[in-house]
UniProtKB/TrEMBL annotation:
This is Beta-glucosidase. Belongs to the glycosyl hydrolase 1 family. InterPro entries: GH, GH_1_N_CS, Glyco_hydro_1, Glyco_hydro_1_AS, Glyco_hydro_1_beta-glucosidase. GO terms for biological process: cellulose catabolic process. Pfam families: Glyco_hydro_1. GO terms for molecular function: beta-glucosidase activity. Transmembrane segments: none annotated. It comes from Undibacterium baiyunense. Substrate binds at residues 26, 127, 171, 300, 401, 408-409.
Length: 462
C-alpha cells in the first residue's frame, strides 16, 4: 500500500524542486520555420522504415507556436521548474559559423514566459538532434564536433546563463552512442558498436570542453550533465550471471561516471573492447574530469542480466509499460544509494531526477483520460526517491517525463508519456488524471513547506 498523498509529500526537503521535462525535436515542430536547418532526426525520421508509424517531428506538438499555452499548463500544475532542450540547428543552422537570431529569440521568449510565471528554466544543450550539416562532416565520430559543441555551449551560456537555473551539456549520451551508432535504432542510424565507443568518448570530451567554456562566462546557472542509469541485476546467483551483470553496469553507468569523477574509463569495460579503434588523446581525461554543479539522472527500468539461452526474463510483478519496460521502482532507490556510496568522495554533486515516467496506451473517454497506472507509477517512484533522501543521498529535485505526449523517437506518436494528452490533429491539450493528481501532490508539498516553521518557501533551488 502506497502512502497517502500528503504523507508522501512531507517526505521531501522544503527546497525540493518539482518540474516536468521535454525535448526540442519531440515537441517544437516548426521544422522549416524561423531559420532552422535540418537535424539528424529530420533526416532519420524522413527515411522510410525508420519510424514505426512512418511519422516525423515536422509538427509534433507545435510547441514553437503554442509555447505560451504550454507554459500556462506548467504554471497551472503549480510546478517550480521546466526542463527543456535547445534545437542546436535552430540557433546555429550549420552547427558552426553564424548564429540564427530568430531561433535565439524563440528561446528568449520561452525563458521570459517561464520567468513571468515564476518557473525556473533548466536548459539542456543536446538532446540527440545534431545539425545535419555536422553529420555530413562525420558527426560525433569527428572529434571536431566536440569543439563545435563547446563553442555552441559558450554562446548559449553567454546569452542566457543568468536567466537559467541550470544548463546540462548532454541528455543521455549513452543513447546517442549506443542507439545512434551501435545498433542504428536512433539517428543517425549507424550500426557499428566499435564506432559507438569512440562516439561516447567524443561526447564526454565535448561535455568537458563545454563545461570549461561555460565556466569562463561567469554566469549564475548551475552546470552539469544528464545520464540515463540503471541497476544491473543478475537473473540468477550463478557466477556467469553475476559477472555479466557487473560488466553491464561497467559498460553503461560506470562508462560515463568514471571519466567524469575518476578521470578514467572502468577497467572491466575496457577489457572487452577493441582499443585499436578507441582513440583517447593524452589530455582528454583531464578535460572530461571537470567539476560539475549537479548530476541529472534519468531512470526508467533496471537491467536484468541473464546468460542463459533464451535469457530469463524478470517476473515484472508490477507489470510493464507501453514501451515494454519492466516497472521496477525499487531500482531507483538502489541506484541512487549505490551511486552515492561509490562516488560521494569523488566530487559527486547534488542530484536531480531529470526524467522518470511511464508510457501508457491512454484512451480519450469524452474529455477525460483515466490513467490510474501512471499515478501508481509516480507514487511508487516518488517513494523510492524519498527513501534515497532518507538514506543520505543529496537529491534536489524531480522532473516528470513528460509534460506532453510527443514524438517518441522511433516509436513516432504510438507511445504516450505525457501528463497532458495531445490530440495531434487539433493540437488540443487535455489534462490526464495523472496531471490532476500531480497538481494535488505538489499543492500538498507546498502547503507543508509554507507551514514549516523556520523553512524558506523560496522556489529558488539551492
Amino acid at each position: 500500500m502506497m502512502p497517502e498523498q500528503d504523507t508522501l509529500a512531507h517526505k521531501f526537503p522544503a527546497k525540493f524542486v518539482w518540474g516536468v521535462a521535454t525535448s526540442a525535436y519531440q515537441i517544437e515542430g516548426a521544422a522549416n520555420e524561423g531559420g532552422r536547418a535540418p537535424s539528424i532526426w529530420d533526416t532519420f525520421s524522413h527515411t522510410p522504415g525508420k519510424i514505426l508509424d512512418q511519422s516525423n517531428g515536422d509538427v509534433a506538438c507545435d510547441h514553437y507556436h503554442r509555447y505560451v499555452e504550454d507554459v500556462e499548463h506548467i504554471a497551472n500544475l503549480g510546478l517550480d521548474a521546466y526542463r527543456f532542450s535547445v534545437s542546436w540547428s535552430r540557433v546555429q543552422p550549420d552547427g558552426c559559423g553564424e548564429w540564427n537570431e530568430e531561433g535565439m529569440a524563440f528561446y528568449a521568449r520561452l525563458i521570459e514566459a517561464l520567468t513571468q510565471k515564476n518557473i525556473r528554466a533548466h536548459m539542456t544543450l543536446y538532446h540527440w538532434d545534431l545539425p545535419q550539416a555536422l553529420q555530413e562532416q562525420g558527426g560525433w565520430l569527428n572529434r571536431d564536433t566536440a569543439v563545435h559543441f563547446a563553442r555552441y555551449a559558450q554562446e548559449m551560456a553567454a546569452r542566457f546563463g543568468d536567466q537559467l537555473a541550470s544548463i546540462a551539456t548532454h541528455n543521455e549520451p549513452w543513447c546517442t552512442a549506443n542507439l545512434g551508432y551501435g545498433n542504428g535504432q536512433f539517428a543517425p542510424g549507424v550500426v557499428d558498436p566499435v564506432a559507438a565507443l569512440q562516439v561516447s568518448h567524443h561526447l564526454l570530451l565535448s561535455h568537458g570542453l563545454a563545461i570549461q567554456a561555460m565556466r569562463k562566462q561567469n554566469k549564475s546557472a548551475k552546470l552539469g550533465i544528464v545520464l540515463n542509469q540503471w541497476t544491473a541485476d543478475p537473473a540468477t546467483d550463478s557466477e556467469e550471471d553475476r559477472a555479466a551483470a557487473a560488466w553491464e553496469y561497467a559498460r553503461s553507468v560506470q562508462w560515463f561516471m568514471d571519466p567524469i569523477f575518476r578521470g578514467h574509463y572502468p577497467e572491466l569495460a575496457l577489457a572487452k573492447i577493441d582499443r585499436s579503434r578507441f582513440i583517447v588523446a593524452p589530455e582528454d581525461m583531464q578535460t572530461i574530469q571537470q567539476p560539475i554543479d549537479f548530476l541529472g539522472i534519468n531512470y526508467y527500468f533496471r537491467a536484468y542480466v541473464s546468460t542463459e539461452t533464451p535469457p530469463r526474463l524478470p517476473e515484472a510483478k508490477l507489470g510493464i509499460t507501453d514501451m515494454g519496460w519492466e516497472i521496477y521502482p525499487e531500482g531507483l532507490s538502489r541506484l541512487l544509494i549505490g551511486i552515492h556510496q561509490e562516488y560521494k568522495d569523488l566530487g559527486l554533486p547534488p542530484i536531480y531526477i531529470t526524467e522518470n515516467g511511464m508510457a501508457v496506451a491512454d484512451q480519450l473517454e469524452g474529455e477525460q483520460i483515466h490513467d490510474s497506472r501512471r499515478i501508481d507509477y509516480m507514487q511508487r517512484h516518488f517513494q523510492e526517491v524519498a527513501k534515497a533522501i532518507e538514506a543520505g543521498v543529496d537529491i534536489r529535485g524531480f522532473f516528470y517525463w513528460s509534460l506532453l505526449d510527443n514524438f517518441e523517437w522511433n516509436s513516432g506518436y504510438l507511445r504516450r508519456f505525457g501528463l497532458i494528452y495531445v490530440d495531434y490533429v487539433s493540437q488540443r491539450r487535455i489534462w490526464k488524471d495523472s496531471a490532476i493528481w500531480f497538481k494535488g501532490f505538489v499543492q500538498q508539498f507546498q502547503h507543508w513547506r509554507s507551514s514549516t516553521k523556520g523553512t524558506s518557501t523560496s522556489r529558488e533551488p539551492t
